[in-house]
Amino acid sequence: MSSAARRAYFSSAWAVAWRYLHNLYTKPAVFVPGLIFPLFFLAAFAGGLSSVSDVPGFDYYDFTAFQFCFVLIQASALAGVFVGFSIAGDFEQGMGRRMMLATSNRSAIVLGYALGAALRLIVVWVIITGVSLLAGMTVRGSGLDIAGMYMLGLLANVAALFFSAGIALRFRSLQAGPLMQMPVFIILFLAPVYVPQELLTGWIEPVAKVNPVTALLDGARSLLAGEPTGLLLAYGVAFSLIAVMAVWAMRGLRKAEVAG
Amino acid sequence: MAARSVTRLVRQPAAIIPSVIFPLFLLAVNAGGLNAATDLPGFPTDSYITFAIAFTFIQSAIFSTMNAGQSLAQDIENGFFSRLVLTPMRPSALMAGQLVGLVLLGQFQALLYFAVGIAAGADFAAGIGGYFVLAALVSIISVGFGGIGLIMAIRTGSGEAVQGMFPIMFVLLFFSSMTLPRNLIEQDWYRFLATINPVSYLIEAIRSLFIVGWDAEALALGFAIAIVLAVLSIAFAARSLKGRMLK
After folding, report:
1. What Rg value do the Cα atoms of chain A yield, rounded?
2. What's the pLDDT score for residue B247?
3. In the prediction, which pLDDT does A32 show?
4. In angstroms, what CA-CA distances link B211 with A176, B45, B57, B116?
5. Coil, strand, or helix at residue A192?
6. Is residue B189 less than 8 Å (CB to CB) from chain A?
7. Mean pLDDT for each consecutive 10-residue tract of chain B (247 residues)?
8. Which of these, A12, A80, B137, B184, is most buried using a 10 Å CB contact count?
9. Contact criterion met (CB < 8 Å) for B40 and A57
10. Separation CA A178–CA B18 (nearest Å)
11. B107-146: buried (b, 16+ CB within 10 Å) or exposed (e) per residue?
12. Neighboring chain B residues of A204 at a CB cutoff of 8 Å
């Protein structure tokens, strides 16, 4: 790619990101649900279930911190899914076609949405972290650990974004919303949400063991506790998911191009 | 109108299936994920599924808010309601028609959840007679929440506005005693919310049938709240309907 082509590519990506963010912050109805849901789960789980930390074998240092990590991964993934809604909406209204006409390398469109999602996510992180600290969450990890924890959130965001973009680009309709949201919602809840993996019983225990979200959650929780463990697995799983979902999204883009 | 309401429900599996499946999914996740909570001192049973299954019935009843409201809002949006107004049909017949379908769906769901719960190992202390009490309570609760959906539909005439009720209903559901008994909720603010939330008492009435058998206090509170909710919501819905028919 020549430097002029590279400049045009990133300029297109930034234009898509800017448009996405502008729409987001001028239409609270689009932004608020992605913020309210994680805050709601934080309040419901950290508030309502705190006595679960008294169960024998529950060895995490702080229940609010334990739930915060779930909410962080959940908020990050859902932020990616909500971008999928925006992509579907843009294509439904014809904006997607115009963007494809205006961009020579169409992967810049997906990159633009991904940039927008990441910037949106920072606002969500600041709010849920602030609320958790106000609720009494204690942080044991170092600055580097905390950065590593947020990085896992970002990777979850990118993977979920590519997944939902792949669906949005194939269906190009907001009616595909449940197809983007439900699988992510389900896979999140099939991880150790309420208690550590060792305390899970029944059918969910083997499911959680092979669920990739479990590795992300365990990694994030260990980083917040300042005792990093299983990071190789967590990052390995995250990058693998991104690689697979990127292919899924790019093939979706090709289908959108073919459909015109 | 009742036959139309039932036919419509049957012909719209996409509208019904989530309201049937989602409560079962949450039950399955919670039963596995929170079974360790039964080790807490004072937990009323050693089987979390026995504790949690009550929540499933209430969740599906709350979903009925959306089903009832959505159907009527569609009728208003596509003009069918305006045509009905021109007929000699009484407002009460229109509402009853909508609610019959809802009660039948509620009964089907109750039977399904009961069967799944028992198959998954839940105990039912109240015995066969208790099932009829459970079915009666679920019907009244469905009418109560269905009435709220009708109020929203009549007042706004918009399916989107009815769907907008979902987060409020979800909050009512979660900030209750759905996952732990109120005496085991440590956080004061959460216990306070669960105590003033009428949904807690609806859940606890159904839960008592599974865990205790016949707990007069829990059942009386549950039925009283369900009846008050049903009477108020239907009364408000009837008033709103009269107003809309005059427009």
Report:
1. 19
2. 65
3. 74
4. 41, 7, 15, 16
5. coil
6. yes
7. 70 68 86 88 92 90 74 78 75 77 84 93 92 93 88 79 72 88 91 94 96 94 96 89 75
8. A80
9. no
10. 10
11. eebbeebbebbeebebbbebeeebeebbbebbbbbbbbbb
12. 28-29, 32-33
One-letter identity of residue A221: R
Report whether B13 contacts B21 (CB < 8 A).
no
Q: Are B100 and B6 in contact (CB under 8 A)?
A: yes
| φ/ψ (deg, to 5) at A229 | -140, 155
3-class DSSP assignment, residue B157? coil
Both tokens assigned to B87: 């007929």
Q: Give the HSE-up count for residue B244: Cα atoms under 13 Å, Cβ half-sphere.
A: 27
Cα(A104)–Cα(A102) distance, rounded to whole angstroms? 7
- Token pair 């990616």 is at which residue? A80
Task: Quote the minimal CA–CA distance from A104 to chain B in Å.
Answer: 38
Asked if B6 and B98 touch (Cβ cutoff 8 Å), the reply is no
Q: Which residues of B touch A33 (CB under 8 A)?
A: 167
- Spell out the domain ranges in chain A: 3-259
The two structure tokens encoding residue B181:
């008994």
pLDDT of residue B16: 66
Q: Which two tokens stand for residue A93?
A: 């209204």
Tokens 């063991």 label which residue? A209
Give yes or no for a contact between A155 and A117, defined as CB atoms under 8 angstroms apart.
no
Q: Which residues contact A137 (CB under 8 A, 6 or more apart)?
A: A62, A64, A65, A68
B169 versus A63: which is more confidently predicted? A63
pTM confidence score: 0.83
Q: Which amino acid is at B160?
A: E
